[in-house]
Amino acid sequence: MRNIDRLHYMDSLRAMAMFLGLVIHAAVPFAQWTIDPLRVHDEPSMSLHYIM
What we know:
The protein is mainly alpha-helical. The protein has one domain. Helix content is about 50%, strand content about 0%.
């Protein structure tokens, strides 16, 4: 088994990134967007409409 030194600053970086992700996701409902960024589905194209 290899002895690899742990990079402790990476733990802090990961924790800060996860916290920032929580803050951003919590702020999304309060954001005032000019377009709808939460729209997941595009309008169906005609070719796909005929296939389905």
